[in-house]
Amino acid sequence: MFVDFDWGAALGQSPILGVLILCSMVTLAFAIERLNYYRRRSGDTDAVMRRTMASVQRGRIDEAVEQVQELSHPLGAVAAGTLHGFSRAPQEAEEIMHVMLNQQKLLLERNTGLIGTMAAVTPLIGLLGTVWGIMRAFQAMSKATAVGPSIVAAGVAEALVTTAAGLVVAVPAVILYNHLNRRQTTMLAEAENHTRMLCVAARSAAAYADAAQAEAAASAVHAVRRSASPSRATVPV
Questions:
Q1: What would the pLDDT profile of 20-46 be if each residue is shown by its tens digit?
Q2: Residue 132 contacts residue 16 (beta carbons within 8 Å)
Q3: Tens of pLDDT along 180-230?
Q4: Can you tell me the distance from the alpha carbon of 106 to that of 183, in angstroms, rounded to the nearest whole number?
Q5: What is the CB-side half-sphere exposure of residue 234 using CA atoms within 13 A?
Q6: Non-local CB neighbours of 42 within 8 Å, separated by 6+ positions
Q7: How far apart are the C-alpha atoms of 31 and 112, rounded to whole Å?
Q8: What is the 3-state secondary structure (H, E, C) of 59-121?
């Protein structure tokens, strides 16, 4: 059916089909860009988390920041920024984490909305092309001296091609849009959960270090007091 169809004539007579071809090219370009971007932002978060958690538990925050920065996953930027802020202002770690998550969300959402727009708009453009083609078919039928089924059938077939083209663009765009949204939600949730675990470990390590320091200071004070107290002389009876 599509082999015998005169695509050149349809493209020349229907500007809607040209718009759909342009939409398909734009959708394909941004789909390739987003897939490559998400592929580059993936990484082995579990392995990096094990090393980073070990450094945090030892109280080496700067070393943990350097380790987690090597990760291209959103966890790398979120955890590095949060731990860096935690080492200077522990009470602001929660706010810093939310800011870093929002920054990563903006990067992951870039151009994704355009794919969703194409998924929603191209079927409507195809429907517009169908209406346009049917109007042209009836106009040609009104001008023809001899009205036959072939006149109407050719125009309707040409019109329905735009609807098919719109669906061909929209269906993959919807699938890709939902896939990217799922990956975005998963990546951000993973980044938030791991960052919270690192913050808990950092607070525990800081509390343990403070307790050890306070115990050492108390022992030193007690030793100084013992050395400074006068020894009692024993008097024989």
A1: 989 999 999 999 999 999 999 988 888
A2: yes
A3: 999 999 999 999 999 999 998 888 877 665 565 655 555 655 566 666 665
A4: 14
A5: 2
A6: 72, 73
A7: 8
A8: CCHHHHHHHHHCCCCHHHHHHHHHHHHHCCCHHHHHHHHHHHHHHHHHHHHCCHHHHHHHHHH
